[in-house]
Specification:
Blueprint (H helix, E strand, L loop, with lengths): L1 H16 L1 H25 L5 H31 L1
Helix pairs in contact: 2-3
């Protein structure tokens, strides 16, 4: 059992080195930065209700993209 865990850990470490995983990691980090910027913009928001709803929608969509990217990364980890 212990040997199997070591093998699984080594396989996951190899996944981290793949270009596909690196691309997903980069996208994930970029999306998080964009989300943070939108969030900060929302904290100091000075506009009308319609503009605020548009910002909230954009935040929600960005959050969904982050979740999808994270899910893809996880799928790569468990598929190896």
């Amino acid at each position: 059992m212990f040997e199997r865990n070591i093998e699984e850990n080594n396989n996951i470490k190899e996944v981290f080195k793949t270009q596909e995983y690196q691309d997903l990691r980069k996208k994930f980090n970029e999306l998080n930065e964009e989300y943070k910027e939108l969030y900060e913009k929302g904290k100091n928001f000075e506009g009308n209700d319609e503009q605020y709803r548009a910002l909230q929608k954009e935040l929600s969509e960005k959050g969904a993209q982050i979740q999808e990217t994270h899910s893809q990364m996880h799928q790569l980890e468990i598929s190896e």
